[in-house]
Amino acid sequence: MGIREDQRERVVEALAAHLLANGLAQTSLRPLAAAAGVSDRMLLYYFRDKADVLEQVIGRLADAIAVGLDTALPAQPLPPAQLMLAASELVRSPAMQPSMRLWIDIVAAAARGQAPFPALARRILDQFMAFLDARIDAPPGPERRQQAALVMALIDGIALFDMVGDSALAEAAQAALPSGEFL
Asked: Is residue 86 assigned to a domain?
């Protein structure tokens, strides 16, 4: 790897930490460059534009989350209710909280149509769905995909309760999961 690639890698790592800590609130070029310890001109030396910066950094974070999910939950299929419980515990864990806050920021920016977030949100959603689809104990097909979507919706909803500071509501929702009464 050359010097430029090494520096770019260092910038991506610094910006990944910055986004996890601060979300998307400070994503204009100057704050991003300051967070990376470079000038905004140097930031544009490493990347085409701000969209390229965000795509590279968030793509890296999405890949890291996918690896973390693969490590945290077993690869063997689980019944939907057990998968919901395991996934909800994972998204509520302190280690996952910064990633979940960033995910919600990305979804909100995508909902506003703010580039490059619609494509990034789609990429991350596809990764989450593939992860769930591979771990849900159901025959392949539309019903399995539907159950994976339900798991995704429920665990994101539980994460939202935590994000707004209502952990009691998140815990109540999580406590209802093992019964499988929603499936």
From this structure: yes
Q: What is the pTM assigned to this prediction?
A: 0.88
Phi-psi region of 49 (alpha: psi -120 to 50; beta: other; left: phi over 0): beta
Orientation of helix 117-135 relative to helix 80-91, angle to 10°? 130
Residue 151 belongs to what domain range? 3-178
Helix (H, G, I), strand (E, B) or coil at 26: coil
Number of domains in the chain: 1
Give CA–CA dist 124/18, Å, rounded.
Answer: 19
**Residue type (1 letter), 181:** E
Instruction: Give the CATH number, domain containing residue 89.
Output: 1.10.357.10
Q: What is the per-residue pLDDT across 40-85, written as a single tens digit (0 to 9) for each? A: 999 999 999 999 999 999 999 988 888 888 888 878 899 888 888 8
